[in-house]
């Protein structure tokens, strides 16, 4: 069974270049392992109309939607009310979350922190073992923190509850000093033999002068992946390459 | 003058988690410097309908659209014909590019490599000082390679030709052991005083236990950025922080 996921990163820090994204690769890898591969990623600013429109669009087109960012206590943390708006439900105090955060913060449980106890009506909290204030799931939308350490902890709380799809298998060869233009025709012939697979060609071109190409065969049909990987190995040898299994060195 | 940019990353390697993106932060930073800040990023697979739909959508909504990936010689390199389709023009040999690549490759100028000499009709090549095969601009869409070293070289060829907007100024303070919930109200008051700025609050939570927050004041009104930065410094001191200028340590 094919299942699909989209990822929506909410906030200005990646768009401005202030921080380098540290969430995409983790989630892409984990979702592939769970058989819910990522089909689209978007990074958007924390503008109400933009968030609502993107949540509405993505949740209609993909089986699962994951968001990161915008669930803290400051004025620019508007993801939760926007998701509530996208679902047409109230954004209101979640009693169990309110009680938990009240106990945690004591006299410091001020109005800003109380905002973190508000969820869209009908949402299920995603536990946060790092700093307590939860994420949440509503329908097929899963709202997580943007801080990588917290996002990962939330995702691993959420993962066992997700409906998994068929796992994706892949095999990769790389070779130095052999270029895409030399193997393109042979690779296309292999792709045509195995239309149920995705064959990818990824050139690398390092600052130190090392150049070459990585070739990936990927799909849910494990036997076809093995056969295509063998055909790729044979092609690379024929063209004078010295294929090595796995990713090229960094 | 406000100008806006969108970035479209085309290809499966980031969606699958195979590679970590190495282009977003570079382009986000450079576009901010040029006064054409990024407002949206999308990562999409190399599927024809998906590429055409995204190019069509983004070029209508943003002043400039930059794409990376999918312009090599292999079967999965379909960005150029898709951009041609989005513009409703032919994808055809560009004579000067054909002659240049023919001279470069000599007897190895096979049909796969000849594809790299095809551009949408009316496109202007973006020179590629690293490996020759060019990117191109058509209308407000700028098509570049995905390999980071080549993308950067192409972007720097393109940059002097772009219409720049007003530069964005920013100042950042960070402090350890002071949390968003403590300063949220004060920060919102500063945001309300300077509605023309974007004030951002970015908590950090490191594996080694260091925690704190980075506060950013950003906008095109330099005087207001300075005043807001002073107000943020004062707020952090009041709340018991030890503010330091600049980003938190990694």
TrEMBL record, chains A, B:
Residue intervals of the MoaB/Mog domain: 6-165
CDD domains: cinA (cd00885)
SUPFAM superfamilies membership: Molybdenum cofactor biosynthesis proteins
InterPro entries, A to Z: CinA (IPR050101), FLAD1_M (IPR056596), MoaB/Mog-like_dom_sf (IPR036425), MoaB/Mog_dom (IPR001453)
Domain of life, source organism: Bacteria
Regions that span the bilayer: none
A Pfam family this chain is assigned to: FLAD1_M
Protein name, as recorded: Competence-damage protein
